[in-house]
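Appendix B, Record 12. Input sequence as logged:
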Amino acid sequence: MFEAVLICMLLEIFCFCPFIIVFSTLYFWQSFARGSFGRQRFIELRANVRATTIQRIVRGWLARRRYNKVRRGIIKLQAHVRRHAAKKELKRLKVDGCFFALIFIL
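Logged structural output:
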């Protein structure tokens, strides 16, 4: 009786053994493939992050440069308008004779 049970156990192990070998081999190759794909994806992702960072920095620099150029133009235009208004006011004061009023105030 004991020998029959032992023989059955050995047969089960030997019949089951190829499945274990195949399963462990497939498991190894699956983990290898997933690791390889994961490493490739990580490298591509890191390269994309670097490219995105460079693009972000360059776009920000270009936007600041355009903004400052427009700002300087607006400041120059404002200075011209104020100078023109001041000259016009001075001319009006001279013509009206109010320029002498400033002398009495001083």
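Residues 2-96 form the longest helix (95 residues).
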